[in-house]
Amino acid sequence: MDRFSIILGLFCCFTLTASLRIVKPPTKKLNDGREIPAIALGTWLGNNTREKNISKTCKITSHFSQHGRVEPGQDEVEHAVTWAINAGYRHIDTAYVYQIEDQVGRAVNKKIAEGIKREELFITTKLWNDAHAKDTVVPALRRSLASLGLDYVDLYLIHWPVAQFSNGTYDTADYLETWRGMIEAKKLGLARSIGVSNFNEKQIDRLLENKLEIPAVLQVEINFNLQQPSLLAYCKQKNIVVMGYTPFGSLFYHKARPGSPPPRIDDPALVEIAAKYRKTVPQIALRYLVELGVIPIPKSLTKSRIEQNIDIFDFYLELEEQNKLKDFDKNYRTIKQEKWLDSPYYPFERN
Ligand SMILES: NC(=O)c1ccc[n+]([C@@H]2O[C@H](COP(=O)([O-])OP(=O)(O)OC[C@H]3O[C@@H](n4cnc5c(N)ncnc54)[C@H](OP(=O)(O)O)[C@@H]3O)[C@@H](O)[C@H]2O)c1
Ligand SMILES: *[C@@H]1O[C@H](CO)[C@@H](O)[C@H](O)[C@H]1NC(C)=O
Ligand SMILES: *[C@@H]1O[C@H](CO)[C@@H](O)[C@H](O)[C@H]1NC(C)=O
Ligand SMILES: *[C@@H]1O[C@H](CO)[C@@H](O)[C@H](O)[C@H]1NC(C)=O
């Protein structure tokens, strides 16, 4: 974003809420002509494998039972989404497999009842691996819409290129067929825009080679440790907007995997930049993604952090600072899903 639009943003877009004064996030233009807000609240509760250490003993009984996944509480996500909308978020990222679409829907519908227009909100959800056959896509989206209590989502993503049956074995369904189902969902008006998540360049190219509609969005992991410059350049060239998940990477000591590369939250270079702009280190991490042209998806269930994470549109990082932060890129992936390494559609490097 250039200086001019920041100043413009500062002038005309102050959002006044009870206690905070933050600059409203801008939007980006999608290749289908629609607009997408430049930051989204994440709603995946995460993974507590290391804390609970049950991964090796836990028997998988359904596709939901990811190793040590955090089980959703009754209404914690509902609160988070409510706080987020109050703080100015207009984009919520969720997924069928997170099992909290109902909570997202309750919060969103309450805010709509209070006067926020449906058209002002941008709701993203994702198709799980067990509904990749073409004819199962629309019914899966209808299930998500029923949980969300909505008539349509703004963006529907294929969560992974990997296809599985609900018992976990691989389905032979080709993601080209899945994408045809997505196109059908869009034609029916159930999803206003469609895109993919965790696809690599070749997999996107294959959609295009088959003369299918171009995805509006690619959602992938992007953070200091995994900046993906060539994938970002590819998406820019194809006019595909990138949403960056796990935006904090290994920033927090308690979340960082053993052996994961720096930076951590007390990194001197980050602390210095944060002090200069009177921001926090997590805010610098998110702003850096904005400078890369990426839509960050920070997840938090904590009101103060939800408010902090959206307060990143009143400053920008100098080129010199951006170049310094580029050095943290170690091509280190946090979410590898190595359990799917033997799928023909596994999207990441296999080493
Ligand atoms: N497409 C995909 O396959 C995929 C994969 C992974 C994630 N995602 C999406 O991306 C979202 C974000 O990724 P993620 O959940 O893996 O990780 P993340 O957003 O990078 O990190 C979440 C963690 O950071 C903490 N946190 C957030 N803001 C903070 C702040 N300002 N200061 C200190 N700590 C802070 C949160 O704590 P508290 O909650 O306790 O505040 C939580 O522990 C997900 O929720 C999901 O929507 C998509
Ligand atoms: C998990 O528990 C097993 C046995 O109880 C132990 O050998 C292993 O080191 C633990 N792993 C972690 C990551 O704590
Ligand atoms: C898993 O489900 C599929 C589809 O229903 C079925 O064909 C396959 O035999 C099942 N595999 C196992 C190991 O249960
Ligand atoms: C959950 O965390 C464990 C340990 O850090 C990791 O091995 C596993 O891949 C993670 N699962 C997901 C889905 O990220």
TrEMBL record:
Limits of the NADP-dependent oxidoreductase domain: 74-328
- A Pfam family cross-referenced in the UniProt record is Aldo_ket_red
Point out the signal peptide segment: 1-19
What Gene3D superfamilies does this protein map onto? NADP-dependent oxidoreductase domain
**What residues form the catalytic site here?**
98
Name recorded for this polypeptide: NADP-dependent oxidoreductase domain-containing protein
InterPro entries assigned to the protein according to its UniProt record, in alphabetical order = AKR (IPR020471), AKR2E (IPR044488), Aldo/ket_reductase_CS (IPR018170), NAD(P)_OxRdtase_dom_sf (IPR036812), NADP_OxRdtase_dom (IPR023210)
